Amino acid sequence: MTREEIGANAGAVWNALNGNGTLSVKNLKKVTKLKDKQIFAALGWLAREGKVSMNETETDVNVTLVG
Fold first, then answer.
1. Mind listing the pLDDT tens digit for each residue in 17-52?
2. Which of 19, 52, 58, 63 is 20 to 30 A from 31 via CA?
């Protein structure tokens, strides 16, 4: 994956969260049609920028946009 691809995937994840509120990683995959490694790279990008908050549950991870 290139930096550009990761950035584009981060944009897709951000848009999904912006339109739907908090989503689990499972639901993010459904909405964005991204694969695991693409989702996690995008979440890393967004987390590094301080744009998402992640909360681990027993079965998944819930992701929410911050500010």
1. 999 989 999 999 999 999 999 999 999 999 999 999
2. 58
